[in-house]
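User: structure tokens for this one?
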Amino acid sequence: MSTDKRARGWVEVGAGALRRNYLRIQETVGPGVRIIPMVKADAYGLGMLDAVAALEPLDPWGYGVAAVQEGLTLRASGLAKPVGVFSPAPPDAYPGAVREELALSVSDIGALVLLKEAALQAGVPGRFHLEVDTGMGRAGFDWRRAKEWVPAVRDLLGPGLNWEGVFTHFHSADVDDPGPTTTQWEHFREALEVLAPLPDGCMIHACNSPGALRLPAYAEDAVRPGIFLYGGVAGDGIPSPEPVASIRARVVFVREAPPGSTVGYNSTYQARDHELWATAAIGYGDGLPRLLSNRGSALVRGKRVPIIGRISMDVTVLDVTSLPGVSPGEVATFLGSDGLETITLEEVAGEAGTIGHEILTGLTTRLPRVWVDDEGG
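Assistant:
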């Protein structure tokens, strides 16, 4: 069995690019604002532990995840920095989170009661960030009813609880119109006025990647960047990040196709002339979107070639007629650069009718993640 991670198909990840995108966030919001990189969903599909290792030289304040198990994985790796779980946790997850000193997000009084009970039983403080819902709607205390829930929160404070932060989440910071985000910020500030005074050291944070880059005045104490770190454009009019991920696969079969030859399930493509086809060892089972069938492209020898026919679970066929002599073992790039040509994350997402987040997080574990570092880290 081959141990070469590049034997079939792989995701190449640039550690240096990841750090440089982080530094662009830091430069935008200023040195006094803490950075909490979101490494949820296995660092947007690129490898959580490797991402943390790449970012640690920049000394982030801590890291953000969406599931308790993700936080436990970070703790098992030896990470001692703060870890925030910024989605509601199921009740059974509270004891383990408390024992490993993960900070849970709290969206209602019941969650705060569960956290306090787990903390008193474990004998360690229950860390939490209180979420205020200002319009996202998926979790959080309703900002409009702050005068009702704030007293109940204060009644539960005391031994057993460590209140680390208050946050909200912007739903439209990625669009040109700042109006919805400004409205959310104003609602958040109204809730904060009712919550005042906050405990010493309690952080206020609201900005995701587009919020931090478009409206750094709302950065407050900390920001929680995600997609921009991993090479995804954060919104309309926001400068592009440095690409971080590439998707590559080996050519495993080459054939001449006479006119009329068909390829793929339901024979949706037919050769119009004498063509040369190359089969690449990657398919939708690896996370290459099936919607790229007959519309996406790849780079071979630095030249763009079309995907033809339906993408299969395990392979994808390319028309390489313009590249005579292509042979098995050569590399096809479905995302990233080869020579002077580049296929961007936004291009792939657009062809597939989705967003860059889904392209990256949809890459399966069958594709090894190969981290490279042009900074020698």
